[in-house]
Design a protein that fits this description.
Helices cover 27% and strands 31% of the residues. With 187 residues, it is of the alpha/beta class. Strand 8 (136-140), helix 4 and strand 9 form a beta-alpha-beta unit. The longest helix is centred in the first third of the chain and has 20 residues, at 5-24.
Length: 187
């Protein structure tokens, strides 16, 4: 359960980079084969009956994709697993007026070496103990307006944009204290 502050800072930086990648890399880019296109965005809706997926893509708005038996699902098996607000990468071709998905992949981040994911049950047990007895510092990295509407007890609101600028000043100096971050992102 004990993490070094450096590793926790690395976790935070990874989360920040992932969030920025969703914003910056959301536009259309070249894909594997000539003629293939690729976008990264957030699932808005899935219709299994119509076999369509709508994805919100930065600077493009909502894009609609058709999927079929030839569409490759990477790192998931059923479309039930990619509901709102899952981040996805869609490789597609245009056929007439339609965007036909060639592959759909969940956009997941990898945790750096020495950093691990903490399960909800573990956080609940720590919160029950309190931050001093549990030896942790819990950060709500959501925007302040969202965090003010409700948050996990003992959590300190430090929005991700503030963490990027002043994180070192705002996080505890005790390197034996576990740093735990949560947000409302798609990860």
């Amino acid at each position: 359960m004990k993490k070094r502050r450096g590793a926790s800072t690395l976790t935070f930086l990874t989360a920040v980079l992932f969030a920025f990648s969703l914003m910056v890399l959301g536009s259309t880019a070249a894909a594997d084969k000539p003629g293939d296109l690729q976008v990264k965005g957030q699932v808005k809706a899935v219709s299994n009956k119509a076999k369509t997926l709508s994805v919100t893509v930065k600077d493009k708005g909502v894009m609609l994709f058709k999927f079929n038996d030839n569409t490759q699902f990477i790192n998931f098996t059923k479309t039930k697993e990619i509901k709102y607000p899952t981040a996805v990468v869609v490789r597609y071709k245009t056929q007439g007026p339609d965007n036909v998905a060639l592959s759909i992949k969940k956009a997941l981040i990898s945790l750096p070496k020495g950093v691990r994911e903490i399960k909800t049950e573990e956080v609940a047990a720590l919160v029950e103990k309190g931050s001093e007895a549990g030896n942790y510092f819990l950060v709500d990295a959501r925007p302040a307006t969202v965090a003010s509407a409700g948050h996990i007890p003992t959590a300190v609101s430090i929005p991700v944009n503030v963490l990027g600028k002043k994180g070192a000043e705002l996080l505890p100096e005790d390197r034996k204290k576990s740093l735990i971050f949560y947000c409302g992102g798609p990860t």
